[in-house]
Design brief:
It is a single chain. The chain is mainly beta. The protein has one domain: Jelly Rolls. The chain has no helices and eleven strands. An eight-stranded antiparallel sheet has the order 1-11-3-7-8-9-5-6, with no helix packed on it. Strands 2-10-4 form a three-stranded antiparallel sheet, with no helix packed on it. β5 and β6 form a beta hairpin.
Length: 173
């Protein structure tokens, strides 16, 4: 169980919005990584991809369990260009609501394939809008150490002002 979280970097999206949130030059001095995201986007739709080391190939696979407005389902892909796809509120959703996303990447600097998991809540607290809760498990089929992480759009949108993402390094006890 981790006993030390060290903030590596934090991004707060400004008034102009942001097409992606990038963490670069990630040091290999930790055991695991965690990203905490509070997000909202500027168009209808509602998700972003997580990619490692700017790899846009189909080297990722994922599975997800979703609860969308009380209806459970699962889905996945054995060949994808991203590891996970958290859902976030958008312009069609209740104003001023943001998602809560925790992304966990164990053994990110090892010479093995990289696993990633995420729990994600898009809670809108009103009967007029969908809520979504997702659990993701993904893998990047690459043995390189993760040195960059990109949270990037799934279509043409921007992360909205006040979206934040913070990257932490974890040292296990």
């Amino acid at each position: 169980m981790p006993n030390t979280y060290t903030k590596i970097a934090s991004v707060a999206v400004g008034v102009a919005g942001a097409a992606s949130i990038d963490f670069t030059s990630i040091p290999a001095t930790y055991t695991d990584l965690v990203i905490k995201v509070s997000g909202r986007i500027t168009t209808t739709g509602g998700s972003y991809y997580v990619q490692f080391n700017n790899d846009t190939s189909s080297a990722y696979a994922y599975k997800a369990l979703r609860n969308l407005s009380g209806s459970a389902s699962s889905f996945g892909s054995a060949s994808s260009t991203w590891a996970i796809e958290p859902k976030v509120p958008n312009t069609a959703d209740l104003a001023s609501t943001f998602s809560n996303d925790d992304i966990y990447i164990p053994n990110y600097a090892s010479s093995n394939y990289k696993s990633v998991s995420s729990d994600n809540a898009k809670e809108l607290n009103t009967a007029n809008y969908d809520s979504a809760n997702l659990l993701w498990a993904g893998i990047w089929n690459n043995t390189a150490a993760i040195t960059t992480i990109k949270l990037v759009n799934t279509s043409i949108f921007l992360f909205q002002q006040y979206s934040t993402a913070t990257l932490y390094g974890i040292v296990k006890s």
